[in-house]
Amino acid sequence: MKIYIISAFLLCSFVFLSISTASAEQTFSVVCNEKNEPACFEDKDGNIVGVNIEIVRELCRRLKFNLDIKLVPWKRVLSLVEQGKVDAGMPLFKTPERLKYALYPSTPLHKVAMQVYTQPQSNFIYKNLPEDLYGKTVGIRRGYSISPKFDQAIADGSIEVNELDSVEQLIKMTASSRLDAMIDKGSTVDFYLKKQAALLKHIGQVSQPQAAFLAISKRASQDVDILFRKVDLTLRAMENEGTIEKITKHFAPTF
Known about the structure:
The protein folds into two domains: 2-109 and 212-251, Periplasmic binding protein-like II (D-Maltodextrin-Binding Protein, domain 2), CATH 3.40.190.10; 114-205, 3-Layer(aba) Sandwich (D-Maltodextrin-Binding Protein, domain 2), CATH 3.40.190. 40% of the residues lie in helices and 24% in strands. It is built from eight helices and 13 strands. The strands form three sheets. Strands 1, 4, 5, 6, 7 and 13 form a six-stranded mixed β-sheet that branches.
C-alpha cells in the first residue's frame, strides 16, 4: 500500500513538473517587417531592437514565453501569419482581408498616421485626402495598407502605385522625381532622412492615426484561443499600467 502511494505521488509530481516545464519553455514565434525603424530593426551590432520588439519582449517575460523573433520583408510577414507558420506578426493594421486569418488584441502596439512626401522642389499641393493623388504615381512599401479610402482608390485604378521593398528605395526614387510622391510612417521616414542626409518635402497626412497590432495567426500551432486570451489580457494590463507608453517614450520619444 505504501509503495503504491509513493509511486502515485512520484507520478503526479512528474506530471506536474512536466507541465510546468512545458509551460515555462513555450516558444512564441513572431515576425516583424525588417528595416522598420523605430518599431523593429537591427542595430549596428546585429541585435533585433525597436519599440514593438521591447513591448513584445516584456509581454513574453510576463507570460514566461521564449520569444523567437525574426525580421522579414513585409509581404512575408503577412504570408507567414496567414499560413500559420508563426504565432504572430507585427505591426499590422486591421483590414477586412487580414481579419480572415488573424486575431487582433484589444490593445495596439502603437498608433501611426501615414504621411505624404514629395521631391523638395515639387509644386504639388496636397489638400484633399486622397483625391489630390489621383492620376499620380505614388510609392509605398510592398504589401502595405495605407488607409481604407486610399486602398480603394488603388483598387479602382485612380492612383498608380509603385510598390518597393524599403523606405530607402522610396526616398531615393522620390528625391530623384521618379515618383510623384511617397507614403509611409512619418517616424520611419524621418529616421531614414536623417540617416541618409536626404531631403524631402512633407506635404500632408493621408489618413488619421491608425492602430497597429501584434496580430495572432488563426492557424498558429498552439491553442489559438488560449494564446490569444493570454496575449490580449497581458497587453491590456501593460497598457493600463503605463508600461507600453513608458517603453515607447524611452526607446523613441517621437514615435
